[in-house]
Amino acid sequence: xxxxxxxxxxxxxxxxxxxxxxxxxxxxxxxxxxxxxxxxxxxxxxxxxxxxxxxxxxxxxxxxxxxxxxxxxxxxxxxxxxxxxxxxxxxxxxxxxxxxxxxxxxxxxxxxxxxxxxxxxxxxxxxxxxxxxxxxxxxxxxxxxxxxxxxxxxxxxxxxxxxxxx
Length: 166
Hints:
Protein name: HTH marR-type domain-containing protein
Pfam family, one: HTH_27
GO molecular function: DNA-binding transcription factor activity
CATH topology of the domain at 49-135: Arc Repressor Mutant, subunit A
InterPro entries: HTH_MarR-typ, MarR/SlyA-like, WH-like_DNA-bd_sf, WH_DNA-bd_sf
Organism: marine sediment metagenome
């Protein structure tokens, strides 16, 4: 028995609640599938040194120079140990790191050529997916816009719940 099974709510609210719980499960599954898709692509092209979370981190940093704190602030990697992954990526030569001149406690990171290569592999993968989704009629521009808009509204709601808890 799950939490969903134990909920007893009136008609339309029960339907909405079930839809909400289905959406939560889907978001969680999509995140895991995204990591699996990246892992499979890396196996296909022979990249075995880093994992999918680290590859996604490199992709999201791209051409920017950032701190671990900025990555967390942007909403990335809440569930993973950002500092650990950044250190591993620096140690493996995927990133440069440098202490901030203003705040010596803070370290700024940027991609090396090796890191940019991995970011490019992920970018190409996502590009192929975008073309495939559109070409096969899975999701067109309007559908993608609707999905993104709805997810951003949920993100905003959750952010407000955290920010204004007291």
